[in-house]
TrEMBL record, chains A, B:
InterPro entries named in the record: FAD-bd_OxRdtase (IPR050260), FAD/NAD-bd_sf (IPR036188), FAD/NAD-binding_dom (IPR023753), FAD/NAD-linked_Rdtase_dimer_sf (IPR016156), Pyr_nucl-diS_OxRdtase_dimer (IPR004099)
Ranges in coiled-coil conformation: none
Official protein name in the record: NADPH-dependent 2,4-dienoyl-CoA reductase, sulfur reductase
FAD/NAD(P)-binding domain ranges (all copies): 18-318
Signal peptide from the UniProt entry: none
Lineage top rank: taxon: Bacteria
Keywords, ordered alphabetically: FAD, Flavoprotein, Oxidoreductase, Redox-active center
A Pfam family reported for this protein in Swiss-Prot or TrEMBL: Pyr_redox_2
Statement: the UniProt record of this protein carries the keyword Flavoprotein: yes
Length: 472, 472
């Protein structure tokens, strides 16, 4: 099969060409719908082992806290909506094996136990990720929950609504860990978060993370930092009753949530011989092709290029999964699209505090071999004299000598964190802080001081770059 | 004097070198303080004819509405603060002539009527702008107010507090016009706004401007559109009593506010022989040098390069004035800085509605000779299912064939408009909409749908570019 056929050039008839998609969430759903939209003559079969397609896993904490009314609100596209587009959706059906020689997948119906094979011309591998489970005693006890899938969310919600839970320990103080901690606190539970870093959300520098820690503590969530889970103690019935930490603390828990992040779900791929990359995610090219002819991959299970470090990284985020799925689907459908990589942008709201980051943190910049200067400014979200002006802290990390912006972090309240996008685009375009301070950014008193915090930080970073150059 | 001396290279002693600054607001104040900071041995004399230095003219509407408590809140740096830095500030003193041959300025003390001359080695021309006054009968009547300076603001406030004003007509429905209209409405007055455009704030396209019109009308502010002021009728005492429009409407008014925008205050420069540019503002190079040796200019009185149209334009905005003043001051002080031009970014809040723009509007793009496609998307400020998600409309204007982003406009509520900065940086970097849709922007449910509105608009604009290319 030559590349023209493989990429589905519109000049080639594809009647009967069959695309099998493994996984019906963001990446798989996007790939299936884009391919089908571009080439209605394709047979597209999408397998999903869960009960929902194309849902917002990021929304689960807000469903747990009742900010979002129902599970259905989190579903962007139901199986029925996918079917209405002509996609053959197989729900509660797990793909258990991939045979690349025969070009079939083996599947099992999780409801009736039935099984079968499905042939493919193109395969989209979009299995997502699985929660990290530290190999400690008791980790598989009843009452230890992940929050990866909508089904996980439903199970967690059911447990919380049982009335048996008063004390929750969240293992891992990253984005999801803190969001779940806050949700449980809103439900009136006692909540403790355990994290290995000195400040929560370790992807932030400590001078930004300390704001996050303060905000979390203000909500009466206990933080156990610079510590790790060593064991989960269970009662006679095999149910979690406490988390024991490496430092020896025993944290009573009626329920444990694992918020340690995720790793790519690559078992099936490994078994089939679809190569992984250096990061442990599926290796793909810019068009989301794996190294196996006709096999594509997208979403949390793949690795992406980090545009600053040059390394391959796995970043499990819905926004990337949607883009990557779209790219795969367009290419399968005979179009042309690429996924040009990531720069590490992330945002969260924690107990009324907003925090966001992009590019490299100082630790990441060091690890990537960069030398740099930093600038931290404390400013306001509106003109200082304007009613409702809120503090905002902005940190910039700029390369020595060149002044190129390598990373930025922002923390504040109300309308603070989304400003990270401006900095993400500066980084994407490899701008130096000297040029950033000249940018024509919007100004009016309800929105920023006349020197926008971004510009002030760029000025300060530029002064640091200049001072450093004088000493070189 | 060679350039090294002129730009104040630190290797040259400048004892007794004298810098005269005309105008003590954003541009003049920044230039004076930067120059003095870098070269403490400079003699810096700053003339200001008003009663305040370095204030936020943009904040005046919020002082009128009482959102800001006092005039003093709008002052970023008082004369005393400037003096503490070693700047010789002459308040209420107007420069009435510039003699470039003798290198002196002539000044007059507005308080005691005294006058004198002040010699200079370097001159910074930072006279700001004057409100447009249409040449119609009655325009100079009592009760017709500008809102250009803090003193104008004080006069307007005093008039409104006199108790004699019930009906206000604002001539001009641009940013300042609408902000003042809202302020007067908040004070409980009857307010009418007259504007020549079909939708208010004519720098927005009509499909965005219609949202602004709706928001204004919801506040019970009457809009008279596609009409202009033809005369101001006065009573026997010479006081404004009504605005008569070109279409013949008579709008009763106890007070009239001119919000027609401004023009650069260049009279003194013209008289002295400092050349203007094609736009009518003072012509300057990237370092804020005029075409006269040792004479610099900055702020509302100068013209800037528009980076998209390539034309010289006058944009009166505090953010530019501050940057330009800083650049002039750094260069005078022997450093090196440039002002690389503008792209037309602006933002406003009108009656709870936020609106912002950057780059070229469709009318401006046409005038600049571009051909383009447009995309308008209606999305939400948070994930659609998230509590408090607000509608947001985003419009993109992309060049035919290349797909380069030429302009963007955004309108919505709460945390909508400041997102324009991201688009401004895309335009600054000459990004195409195809690359924009791949950007690594921040996503979490409290901040955006998983496809950020910026990405959705870029997708739609890219599809429009592709559809257009097929027809070329």
């Amino acid at each position: 099969m030559d590349r023209r056929t493989r990429t589905g050039s519109p000049s080639v008839r594809d009647v009967g060409r069959r695309v099998v998609v493994i996984g019906g969430d963001a990446a798989g759903g996007s790939a299936a719908s884009q391919a089908k939209k571009r080439r209605p003559d394709l047979d597209v079969v999408m397998f999903e082992r869960g009960r929902a397609t194309s849902y917002s896993a990021c929304g689960i904490p807000y469903w747990i806290s009742d900010a979002v009314d129902s599970e259905a609100d989190l579903v962007a596209r139901t199986p029925e909506q996918h079917r209405a587009m002509g996609i053959d959706v197989r729900m509660r059906t797990e793909v258990v094996g991939i045979d690349l020689d025969r070009r079939v997948v083996h599947w099992r119906d999780l409801e009736d136990g039935g099984s079968g094979v499905e042939p493919f011309d193109d395969l989209v591998y979009a299995t997502g990720s699985v929660p990290m489970r530290p190999p400690v005693p008791g980790i598989d006890a009843t009452g230890v929950h992940g929050v990866q899938t909508l089904d996980d969310g439903a199970a967690l919600r059911a447990a919380l609504e049982s009335g048996d839970v008063r004390r929750v320990v969240v293992v891992g103080g990253g984005y999801i860990g803190l969001e779940i901690a806050e949700a449980c606190r809103i439900r009136g539970l006692e909540v403790t978060v355990v994290d290995m870093s000195a400040t929560p959300v370790g992807t932030f520098d400590p001078d930004v993370g300390e704001f996050i820690a303060d905000a979390v503590r203000k909500e009466d969530i206990e933080l156990v930092l610079s510590d790790a889970v060593a064991a989960i103690e269970t009662d006679a019935g095999g149910r979690a009753r406490a988390v024991v930490t490496a430092s020896g603390r025993e944290l009573p828990a009626d329920l444990v949530v694992l918020g340690l992040g995720v790793r790519p779900a690559v078992r099936l791929a490994e078994e089939a011989g679809i190569p992984l990359g250096t990061s442990g995610g599926i290796a793909v090219d810019t068009g989301m092709r794996t190294r196996v002819e006709g096999v594509w991959a997208a979403g949390d299970c793949v690795e992406s290029v980090h545009r600053l470090s040059g390394q391959r990284v796995v970043v499990a985020l819905g926004t990337h999964a949607n883009k990557q799925g779209r790219v795969a689907g367009i290419n399968i459908g005979g179009g042309y699209a690429t996924f040009p990589g990531v720069i590490g942008t992330a945002i969260t709201r924690i107990c009324e505090l907003e925090a966001a980051r992009t590019g490299l943190s100082t630790a990441e910049a060091e690890a990537a071999g960069y030398q740099f200067v930093t600038a931290v400014v404390d400013s306001t979200t509106k003109a200082g004299y304007f009613p409702g002006a809120q503090p905002i802290r902005l940190k910039m990390i700029a390369e020595r000598r060149s002044g190129r912006l390598l990373g930025a972090q922002v923390v504040g309240r109300e309308a603070a964190a989304k400003r990270i996008d401006a900095l993400a685009i500066c980084i994407w375009n490899e701008m130096g802080v000297d040029e950033i301070l000249s940018l024509d950014l919007s100004y009016a008193p309800p929105f920023s001081p006349v020197w926008d915090p971004v510009l002030i930080a760029a000025r300060k970073a530029f002064e640091a770059v200049e001072a450093d150059v004088r000493q070189l």
